[in-house]
What does this fold into?
Amino acid sequence: MTTKSTIYQFCRALPKIELHAHLNGSLSMSILTELGCMDTSIVRYMNLTDILNKKERALDECFKLFKVAHDATNTPDSVYIATKRVIEEFDHDNVMYLELRTTPRSEENMSKQEYIESVIKAIKENDKNITVKLILSINRSHDMKNSQESLEVILNMKKIFPDIIKGIDLSGNPNVGKFEAAIFKTAKENSLYTTIHCAEVKNDEEVKDILNFGPDRLGHATFLHPRYDGCQENWQLYCEKRIPIECCMTSNVICGTSESYKKHHIQEWIKNGLPFCISTDDKGVFCTSLSEEYEYANEFFDLSKEDMWKVSLNAVDYSFASNAEKLLYKSKLNEWKRDNENLFL
It folds into this structure.
């Protein structure tokens, strides 16, 4: 008989692939404490009770919380420590491949290049059983000039660290700014994979533009399906393109963009056999882990152990890893399944 305890054990033992994790949103209480955050700031960062009681403002309020993390990572050393600890925590959760994403930013004592170098230093020094790649983000609230400057820094760093910097993302508060296709066209022309936060709020025109651009992955896609306030035209276009989406259930529920776990839009992808992966988004802010997100998939959508193993296996194909790396991770997942047949009972 499958029980909660056996599902708990399975989800933690399963080698997992994390494709949507923001560095500054993944800082746990212990990491913030190590970085010298005041207790009051940590409580504010991690306590979302007030937000849950104001669903109409939840998404905007969640983004305000990132100031706590940004204040804690405003020097090269603090960025390095934060990255190192986040990698360690994902490794502890048995994540074997992590695509960590972050927006390069300049501070009083740190340039955008130094910020990226600090993240990469921690990735290069990683000695855990986890492979880490980097996705660098463009903040949608920035103007075109600022975004182009960021892209120039990203492309220059990509030339130096081509095996680590794999992609570019569009992130930030979806109620502010817009998608600029020209930025991502240039990125794609320079061998960067693209993943774009899409349909976090209802914005059918932007969703159409993003789908027509054709990124490699989509983040969230909450308001894409017609049952979830999307439009039929965009849904048909999406079904033609079948772009993998990064599903972050707890994030969507806490931010109020999904009514509940049971009513999360991931069920449309499961039901229609469309490509998706399970992700955390901001495990620190939302007090979750990738293992817990898999547990929710089992609890609310009846994904079996075999199903969850396939979700992890399929995520390898959606990753920005090299073909050789993908073969390796698939081999590891298949080997793990053979060696742990008892866990599937």
